[in-house]
Amino acid sequence: MIRPDRLEFRARAARGNLIPVYREILADMETPVSAFRKAAGGSHAFLLESVAGGERLARYSFLGADPFLVLQTRGRQATITEAGQTTTRTLAPGCDPLHLLKEIAGRYRYVADPTLPPFCGGAVGYLSYDLVRFFERLPEKSEDPLGLPDCQFIFTDTLLIFDHVKHKILAVANARVEGDADAAYDQAVAKIDALVERLRQPLPQEAPPSPKEASPAPLQSNLSQAEFEAAVRHAKEYIAAGDAIQVVLSQRLSRRTRAEGFDIYRALRSLNPSPYMYYLSYGDVRLVGSSPEVLVTQNAGQITLHPIAGTRPRGRSEEEDRRLEAELLADEKERAEHIMLVDLGRNDLGRVAQAGSVRVDELKSV
């Protein structure tokens, strides 16, 4: 059954121009991985999953494909692909990629459905570290050997949502009402039917595995050991001089592989199940990740950060867990790093939150 019905849809169209329409189907024969292989046939798609506590699949998984708009930026150049047309524009002084995202989102007045999860489609993508130069005056010293976009987002109006508690799939199409509400409703229903039909198809045949290499290609670092050690010495000098309180020295490890990006994601989700797992397929770029830490969340006007610093392995018993916890809390270096990250997070929130509203609810919680 399609929800809302046509009459209710017309009523909602009077309140906004972006309205979710959905249908429920049983999920006992599908997994997010199998559904992705069936439904994500284009060049742009994403899969977002979560495993709570590294042990239990969280309630929802989200799968999106076939975007109606793709946004990329490199420096001050922005490229927008929409309805098969690609346009390029130069960001005006004082404008940054976030302004573009707000501009695109500003076209729509979303009419939320309380029976659906909070996320039912929209913009999914990434913002690179180099975008900090839009907000802070920093020199352009780093090289860019990968040549990836600084920012890339896809906007999807169709979505598959796996509800792992109720064992069902929500096939969602967000109707964009641009005049005739009935026509928008019919178009959304047609998109839902097409999405469900893809799920009914057999799994596409997997390509035969590539011949096994005699030995894996060696990992390549962008820094030699001598270069890394020299960077450590310079960082310590900056800290001693009072120019910095923390320096994160990063290195990129790379190797050539014949493996497909989605197969790498499947291996990662098996080896390292985490609260935040993602697979983004954006043209020639595949981003794969698995992390225990959320950067920032915003819900109903509340912004939340969860700085994480300091770890110990899990013990073989509750008694060993308690001993390791006490050891972690007593470690001077771990405590100092944690307090520093909490202070940095508090300062960052203070730049955008209402004055006096920032508070620390938990500190050094294990």
What does this protein structure show overall?
It is a single chain. It is globular, with a radius of gyration of 23 Å. It is an alpha+beta fold. The protein contains eight helices and 19 strands. The longest helix is centred in the middle third of the chain and has 20 residues, at 181-200. The strands form five sheets. It has an eight-stranded antiparallel sheet with strand order 1-2-13-12-6-3-16-17. The chain has a five-stranded antiparallel sheet with strand order 9-8-7-11-10, with no helix packed on it. A two-stranded antiparallel sheet has the order 4-5. The chain starts with a strand and ends in a 16-residue tail after the last helix. The protein folds into three domains: 2-203 and 259-291, 4-Layer Sandwich (Anthranilate synthase), CATH 3.60.120; 221-254, no CATH class; 294-366, no CATH class.
Strands of the largest sheet, in order across it? 1-2-13-12-6-3-16-17
Order of helices and strands: EHEHEEEEEEEHEEEEHEHEHEEEEHH
What does the radius of gyration come to? Answer: 23 Å
Class inferred from helices and paired strands: alpha+beta
Number of helical elements: 8
CATH architecture of the largest domain: 4-Layer Sandwich
Q: What is the 3D shape?
A: globular
The CATH superfamily title of the largest domain: Anthranilate synthase
- What fold name goes in the CATH topology slot of the largest domain? Anthranilate synthase
Mean of all residue-level pLDDT scores: 91
Give the tally of β-strands.
19
Low-pLDDT residue intervals, each spanning 5 or more residues: none
Main sheet overview: 8 strands, antiparallel
Distance between the termini: 46 Å
Provide the helix percentage. Answer: 25-40%
Domains (count): 3
CATH class of the largest domain equals Alpha Beta
Strand content: 25-35%
